[in-house]
Amino acid sequence: MSREVKPTDTYLSRLLKYIPSEIVMVYISIEGVLRGSYASNPTRLEDGLWILSGVLLVLTPIWLWRVMRVKRLGHLFLSTLSLVVWLFAMGGPFTTFAWYHASLGAVTLPIYTLLVPIITGGRIK
Prior knowledge:
This protein is mainly alpha-helical. The chain has one domain (11-119). The chain is 67% helix and 0% strand. The protein has helices spanning 11-16, 21-37, 42-66, 73-90, 102-119. The radius of gyration is 16 Å and the shape is globular. The two termini are 16 Å apart.
């Protein structure tokens, strides 16, 4: 599956190419295992979620570059940033912060989605 933008791509299909869906899926899968395994040990769960997030943050641009053949640095950056935004929207390890509330994630994701075209100059390539 190539993430290269084609001139015939719609705005939505171009926007979706910035979401590292495979990485988000891996996070959701492993998070479920961690929550089940460490339900009685919140500190271990928090540590595990942060470690998992860090590993996936490092792997995201590598995955996109090596597997999905994404070559543009801007695309790699925005896709990696998208992972952070998605983790924040889902709660992820951010729930360990006292200031975090689910409504922050619910607001952040659509705002980020609006910002991507601004960041890319009104066009998503």
